[in-house]
Amino acid sequence: MKKPIIAVDMDDTICHLVKRAIYHNNINFPTHPLRYEDMIHWDTSHMRHPECTHDVFYGRPGLFEELEIYDEYVVEEVEKLHQAYDLLILTAAEPKTVVEKWNWLQKHMPYISPEQFITCKRKNLINFDLLIDDGAHNLIPALNDGKKVICIPHPWNINEREQHQFPLMTSWKGAKAYVDRLLETEHAESKFDPVKR
After folding, report:
1. Which residue from 17, 22, 43 is spatially nearest to 133, judged by alpha carbons?
2. Residue 51: other Cβ atoms inside 10 A
3. What is the pLDDT of residue 161?
């Protein structure tokens, strides 16, 4: 029997990118400090120092290898998903950051194989049954395609969360059980026959 495909994002889903980028920004550009709570949009160029371009903010060499894991449960829960489902790590990446991201995975989640690691910005082109992500630009197309999603809440997706009522996951504690329930609901709905006999 074919296993459901679970796609899991990296940045700000299994590790903290924005908080670490803010940390370096506030050291290097103290006249333009940033706060995580204020990052309510993807485009924060109006908040950053003129010299802190997108490439500077996210392009610090080694940045993606030094990110902290999302929480104390994420490594174990992702491994549970890996054992139970066809798991993909699906992450947007610039060519120069691909190796850093792979190195991060090998350090924290060495059970992930190269076949499970896909770098792709247009995630809706990938065939999966459920997506765990923080980017509404990924979650909404998945929903529109009839797929299950779980949103990792952050300030930059608050408006879309209010509009779309995504299932949320604020901690990775119990994530495998949560995914099980969402997929069981889908299986039950597919077997439901609405025709009255």
Report:
1. 17
2. 9
3. 95
